[in-house]
Write a structure and sequence with these properties.
Elements lengths: L1 E5 L4 E5 L6 H13 L8 E5 L10 H11 L3 H4 L2 E6 L3 H12 L6 E6 L2 H10 L3
Helix pairs in contact: 2-4
């Protein structure tokens, strides 16, 4: 797992490289929020290129989305991009994106790092 902060652009990059269960996803969110360079309203890019999310299903995705809403004060206006190159990961990520409009949360699902950067630049990052 790697968390890298680009302070100049105010973006955090999270690249899990192992199992990504719901519990592991929660650990990564916590680690990002506790990172010494984390700032509220920081954008985040989750690169899911190296993980298998086949254990996730619709109910797990909804539970994870609800859990994320508990961080709105600490997180600020969240701008998150999920890079999901595989079809299965992309489909699950789209479920989270379409789960509902979360207050203070903008989520985009893309296939490539270039698409992620393009979206972030459009958001002012």
């Amino acid at each position: 797992m790697c968390i890298r902060i680009d302070s100049a652009r105010n973006i955090g990059y999270i690249t899990p490289q192992d199992e990504l269960s719901v519990e592991r996803g929660k650990e990564l969110v916590q680690a990002f929020l506790e990172h010494e360079h984390f700032q509220p309203d920081m954008a985040s890019v989750w690169d899911l290129s190296y993980v298998d999310v086949t254990d996730w299903d619709r109910s797990a995705m909804i539970a994870f989305g609800k859990w994320l809403t508990g961080f709105s004060q600490q997180r600020g206006k969240a701008q998150t991009v999920l890079i999901a190159p595989s079809d299965s990961t992309y489909g699950l990520a789209r479920m989270l994106e379409n789960w509902g409009d979360l207050d203070n949360y903008a989520l985009e699902v893309v296939r490539t790092p270039e698409e992620a950067d393009e979206w972030l630049r459009a958001q002012g990052f």
